[in-house]
Write a structure and sequence with these properties.
Length: 97
């Protein structure tokens, strides 16, 4: 049973990687491209929920990281700056406390 699952996962992974080479010249439909624009926001939401609610109780460092990331996003309008600032504050805050 385990060997079968490993083989199935290996074949699926190979198929996904191969499709990147085979479909490299194919354009995506506009609806798919529009949906992919929300991927960074979804990642930000997942990181935020994991950071704040991951321990079962909200902590002050998570809220400070969330607020600083939100402020960076509002000031720069760049998602990567928001993620970098929020994660930096979370890591530094966790190391200090």
């Amino acid at each position: 049973m385990t060997a079968t699952a490993i083989v199935v996962m290996a074949v699926a992974l190979f198929a996904v990687r191969l499709s990147g080479f085979v479909l490299s010249g194919v354009g995506l439909p506009p609806t798919v491209e529009r949906g992919l624009r929300f991927t960074p926001i979804a990642v930000l939401a997942a990181v935020t929920v994991a950071l704040i609610g991951g321990t079962g109780r909200p902590d002050a460092i998570g809220f400070v990281a969330l607020a600083s990331g939100a402020a960076a996003a509002w000031l720069t309008r760049k998602v990567w700056v928001c993620l970098a600032v929020g994660l930096l504050v979370a890591v530094v805050g966790s190391a200090v406390v």
